[in-house]
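At this stage, I needed to go through a protein sequence along with its fold in C-alpha cell form, as given directly below:
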Amino acid sequence: MDEILDSGEDFSELIKIRRDKLEDLKASGQNPYAETKFDVNATSSEIKERFCSLEAQKGEGEEIKYDVRIAGRIMSRRIMGKASFIDISDGGGRIQSYVRRDDVGEERYSEFKKWDIGDIVGIDGFVFRTKMGEISVHARSIKLLSKSLRPLPEKFHGLTNTDLRYRQRYVDLIMNPDVKETFVKRSKIIKAMREFLDAKGFLEVDTPVLHTLEIGAAARPFVTHHNTLDIDMYLRIETELYLKRLIVGGFDKVYEVGRIFRNEGMDTKHNPEFTTIEMYQAYTDFRGMMDLAEEMYSEVTKKVCGGYTVQYQGETINMAPGWERLTMMEAVKKYSGVDFSQIPDDETARSCAAEHHVEVGKTATKGDILAAFFDEYVEDKLIQPTFIYDYPVEISPLAKRKADDPMFTERFEFFICAREMGNAFSELNDPIDQRARFERQVAAKRAEGGNNAQVDEDFITALEYGMPPTGGLGVGVDRFVMLLTDSPSIRDVLLFPTMKPLDK
C-alpha cells in the first residue's frame, strides 16, 4: 500500500515523530543535512526520453545498459520485505525507483524503510522497464540528502486551500505539477517577448526603481525613506519617463522588463507589485506600435502555445494577426448606440450620461464622459483581441494630440477577454504642452490629498533638448501570462503574490 497521510492524525505528533527520527539519525552519526552535493546526470524526463530512444534502437535480444544518477523528493512509497518502490519528483517530473535490500545492503535498506514521504534522496542505478511497463530506476545505492520535518498534504487531494497555496507556494509547487508548469510557461513567455524585441533591434535597459519625487500620475506610490539623504523616496509606478529620457539621449529603440509598484487595491487582476514591459521607438507613431503589439502577441502565442488559438475560461481566443481596430467613439456607438460625434459640448454630454444612468462628476467634460460610456458599455464586450484608439486628451496626459482633432490623442489600448492588456501613444514631445498637462495632473492629485505630487522638472528639461517623434507601448506581462495559461487570477501567475499577514 502507498503511504498516505491520514488527515485525522494529529499534525504536531507527526512533526514530533519526524524530529525524533532526525535526532536518531544524528545520534548515529548520519546528519541528513551534512551533504553538500550529489552529482546528478539526468532528470526524470530526460531518462524516460533517452530510454525510449534506446529501446527503439536496440537489436533483438540486446540488453539496454543505461546508468543514471538522479536526486529528488520521495512522493510516495510502497514498502515491502526485501524490495520496495518509491516515486521520486525532480526538476523534470516524476519517476519510479526500485530499491532492493540485496542491492543497497541490509543496513541501508533498514534505514531506508524509516525514511518519510517528502525526504530528498540521491540514487545511483540503472534504467529498466517493469513488467507493468513503467520506466524505472533500479537503485544500486540510495542516500538521504535532506530530511523533511513536515508531512506533505494528503496526496489524493493535494494542497487545495487557495489561500494556503499562495502563502506556501513551495508546497503548492511540490504537490501540484500543473502549477509548476504555469511558471515554466511564464518564463518562456517573457523569454519569447525579449527575443522578439531583440530581433527587432530594441535594446534592453534598466532604470531606477526608487524615485526622488512623487510624479503627478494617477497611481498612488509606496513611500520609503533614505536615511543618508534624509529624504522620502517613492517606488516607481511606471518605467516610462526614464525610458523616454533615453530616447532623447539617442537610443532609438529601448525596452525594459520591469517590476512596478502601486499602493492600490487587490483583486483577481491587480497585485501591489506586478511586471510590465515598456518599449519606445523613435520616428514611429501609435500606429507603428499597434502593428508591433499585434505582431508580438501573435508570434509569442504561436511560439509558446504552438498555435494562434488559446482557451481562456471557456472562451476560444484567436490571437492570429488581423485584430479589430475601433476608435473609442466608434466602439461606444457600436455597443451603446450613442454617437458622441453628434454631442456638441460638455453640458449635453452630462445630460446624455444622466439619461443613460452613467455616473460622472458634476464638472465632467465630454472626453471624461466618453471614457465613462466606454467603461460602462464596451469593455466587457471586447473578448477577441481588439484595439481601441483615439482617446480623449483628458485621460491621456502623456500622449500627443491628434493634429486634426486636438480634443483626442494618438493613443490606443488593446483588450482581450474584456481586459486591458496594453497601452500605447504617439508620445508627447512638446515640452510646453507637457508642462501644462503635468501641472493639471499635479493639481488634480493634490486635490485628492496627494500633497507631495510634483512636476518632473528634469523630464521637462529633457524634452526641451528635443525628443524625436516617438511611439511608446506598455504591456502587462502578468495578464498575458494569465491568458496563455488559462489562469483566472493574477495570484495564479505570481510565484509569491502579496498576502495579508495572518495576524491581521
Summary: The CA atoms of residues 60 and 443 lie 84 Å apart. The chain is about 35% helix and 25% strand. Confidence is low (pLDDT under 50) at residues 1-8. The longest helix spans residues 177-199.
